[in-house]
Amino acid sequence: MASKHAQSFAIPAGTSAVLTDLTKEVLRVSTYSEDINSSEDLYAFCYSYFIELLERQESEMYDNAEGDAPERMSNDDLITKVGLLFDQADADGNGFLDRKEFKAVFVSLKEELGLSNKVIKQIMAEADENDDGVIEYREFVPMAVDVINIIEAKQDFKENQELDKMDAVEDAKDFLLHGMPRETLEEMLKSAFIKADKDKSGYLDRKEFKQCLKASGLGFTKKEINVMMSEVDLDGDGKITYDEFVPLCFSMLADMMADKMKTMTSETEEEIKGTLEEVFLEAFGGDSVVNKSEATALLRDADLGLTRVQIAAVMSEVKIDKKDCLDYHELTTVTAGVVAALLNVERQRVLADQMSDLKAQEDYGTVLGLTQDQMASSLDANFRELDVEGSGLLTIEQVAQVVLATLELSPPQFQAVMSLACPDDDGNVWYDDVSEWSYHTLEYIVSGQHAVLSPRGDE
């Protein structure tokens, strides 16, 4: 009868007496009433029995403490309680819940544990759906309990923390999210959404929406995607519209950005570099010289929160030889500095002020004398002229030929744009990515945004 979600731990003293009392109570109730007629009834009765027992114990602790706050639940008690709630929600007993059912487990604990909506969002940020859109409790609950306990441990400092958090949120809203102003972020989200809506229905299902976020090029981290997935589809019909999502997007990202800003430490940059070094070492072994396209793809998959534009700008900072190869130690150094700077309040403040000044200039909205539409159209037309078969694919050499003929670029700018072109296994490139992202990449570099974030920007 043990829960399939039970954790392994030593049996505490007194367990035998507790189980004896439970057995007596089960026999008493089953003798004098018909409340227990099945295994489901027995589970429900045991759950209620232990909840009442916990409440009595908590009440006694509170009374004995002469007015002090009652002790918080231990990890084992919390895991047991969440496990019982999970079992109740897991009607078919398969060990999985969908995101809405899983969230309901923690919402049911909201009042008892003093969990705010914000805390529940933090918990949901850790919950990964599998390909079937469900969450496995067994792997997730210990980490969720840790999240709850960490939050509870900070409650003694809550007042000061809330003041700091309010300041951090305001800073995050005043600055840029993922290196871009709110209007640019929303514009690019809309573009990604429309692109993913292949049947032009005006909505995406949950699986399509998750893929849309991953493929958007906006560098959403796994946690950010998890939070968004838990908040969209407000009407519960399984369909997500862009209008349903936009009002939530900016505030959620600003809130998460504020959390990152608050936890920023001087060691973060070194930690990021160490993590990246491990990723590259695992992928390429001891050879530090790697192919540029493979290195770019690895950065995109590293869950760093970097947009395609920022990755392309990072690639413009490293030396790439004639064989299209680079030293990944140099790349990880530059990348770690940029990621750390994105979380640095002072650098973000400088960047936000700089962007505000740029918007006031007459030529704002053009790069190299071209608007976004003009640049994209010119590149696309020249790409299509070479693409006689209309396949949407060109070789990396043909893409370079078009970029050089269409745009007057410095070597670092050319290097950044070409980083947008990732060849497939046959060496061919989907050139629409280059058309779509070249303007944003060049705007990012020409405007000086990257110089503010780059670890070399202070030199």
Tell me what you see in this structure.
By secondary structure, the protein is mostly helical. The chain folds into three domains: 139 residues, EF-hand (Recoverin, domain 1, Orthogonal Bundle), CATH 1.10.238; 104 residues, Recoverin, domain 1, CATH 1.10.238; 82 residues, EF-hand (Recoverin, domain 1), CATH 1.10.238. Helices cover 63% and strands 5% of the residues. Strands 1-2 form a two-stranded antiparallel ribbon. A two-stranded antiparallel sheet has the order 3-4. A two-stranded antiparallel ribbon has the order 5-6. The termini are far apart.
Task: List the SSEs and their pairings.
Layout: H1 15-32, H2 39-64, H3 75-89, E1 96-98, H4 99-108, H5 110-113, H6 117-124, E2 134-136, H7 137-153, H8 158-174, H9 182-196, E3 204-205, H10 206-215, H11 222-231, E4 239-240, H12 242-263, H13 268-284, E5 289-291, H14 292-300, H15 308-315, E6 325-327, H16 328-342, H17 345-359, H18 372-386, E7 393-395, H19 396-406, H20 411-418, E8 428-430, H21 431-446, H22 449-453
Antiparallel strand pairs: 1-2, 3-4, 5-6, 7-8
Helix pairs in contact: 3-4, 3-7, 8-12, 9-10, 11-12, 13-16, 14-15, 15-16, 15-20, 15-21, 18-19, 18-21, 20-21
Organism: Triparma laevis f. longispina
GO cellular component, one term: organelle
Family: Belongs to the centrin family.
